[in-house]
Amino acid sequence: MLFLRLGTTAFGGPAAHIALMEDEVVRRRRWLTQDEFIDLLGATNLIPGPNSTELAIHIGHRQAGWPGLLVAGTSFILPAVLIVTAFAWAYVRYGSLPQVAGVLYGVKPVIIVIVLQALWSLGRAAVKNRWLALVLAGGVALTLAGVNELLVLFGAGVIVGAGRLITRQIRSGHNSLVALLALFLQASPAATASFGLWPLFLFFLKVGSVLYGSGYVLLAFIRADLVERWHWLTETQLLDAIAVGQVTPGPVFTTATFIGYVLGGTRGALVATLGIFLPAFVFVAASGPLVPRIRRSPVAGAFLDGVNVAALALMAVVTYQLGRAALIDLTTIIIALLSAIILFRFRVNSAWLIIIAAILGWLLFSQ
Predict the structure, then answer these.
(1) Structural domain of residue 175, as residue ranges?
(2) CB atoms within 10 A of CB 68
């Protein structure tokens, strides 16, 4: 039920989803410790696919094994798929999207506060010494400078891991060897302009298998192939797909569901959804058992420490960028301040804040 509810109310993109999960599984339910949660977060950043969905799958697997893996992942994805499908149906039938600017206006400031709370909590657990604090600051600087996210993550892991290895060599003279394997599925539809469900499935399977980064990177893939190369979508349809991904809760990757419905109806939506999310289950199933083993190795654990603080650096930069877009006037600043007081002082469930802010934003815009 937890991930079903999160999939229904988790607005704001991966950073906000991670913050909501941390609040629920660490603070409220105590399923995981801060350190365990951060390790799983670091692991999701090392594999391609939708990070918040993979984190949900990891948590489900940690709690209830293989059944938990399937239930948590499916529950988090399903509400967003149904909501996006409803949007797509209305879009195809009426040729436009419902007005949702008011909802976003109210929700965005609350999302910023929720992510800041998670960053503060996770940062206290992840930044274990001054060296890691320096790596965190470097990760923020490099991300702001436009360095590729994957380079920041692996670079931080290698630097911290190498530092631990050198220290151990100096102290004991022993060598350690760390082998990290990444499995990438390679599937690509044939170079054809003819639309079909099978090429659609293979396209999104490929994207879900190799894509690192945010939903905006996903949109770059879609534009390159579906708009420019095969001409299955128009620029206008792509922009509408972006809007749906922004205003609906749950994984941003359900943009694929919208596109699948526009191109192939209900079957197209199912095929596209299956294609883009299937690799996430495979990657988590393959990498999940490795996380405790990595943590037990001093050098590999140090690598994971570096990845963890780099992941927090990426979240911090995303929060800064979202904050500039969300806090646009006095009203949004007041909403953010009140949300911060309620969240930090009274520990109210963040889902209620999101719902109230969405209603408030809609009312303000409807006047």
Answers:
(1) 1-358
(2) 17
Nearest to 200 by CA among 267, 250, 281: 267
Q: Is the dihedral of CA 70, 76, 82, 84 positive or negative?
A: negative
Q: Is residue 215 part of a domain?
A: yes
**pTM here?**
0.64
DSSP-assigned states of every residue in 148-214: -HHHHHHHHHHHHHHHHHHHHHHHH------------------S-S---HHHHHHHHHHHHHH--S-
CA-based nearest residue to 333, from 112, 117, 16: 112
Assess contact for 114 and 12: CB atoms under 8 A: yes
Asked whether residue 366 is domain-assigned, the answer is no
Q: What angle do CA 112, 116, 209 make, to 5 degrees?
A: 80
Q: Cα–Cα distance between 354 and 9 in angstroms, integer? A: 7
Find out whether 164 and 298 touch, Cβ atoms under 8 Å. Answer: yes
Torsion of CA 80, 85, 86, 90, to 10 degrees: 140
Q: What residue type is 70 in one-letter code?
A: L
Specify whether the CB–CB gap between 188 and 206 falls below 8 A. yes
Q: Is residue 363 part of a domain?
A: no
Q: Whole-angstrom Cα distance, residue 356 to residue 354?
A: 6
The answer to whether position 62 is within a domain reads yes
- Condensed to tens digits (0 to 9), the pLDDT of residues 86-113 reads 988 988 887 666 566 677 678 778 877 8
Q: Which of 197-201, 205-209, 308-312, 321-325 has the highest mean pLDDT?
A: 197-201
Instruction: State the total domains in the chain.
Output: 1
Contact 113, 357 (CB under 8 A): no
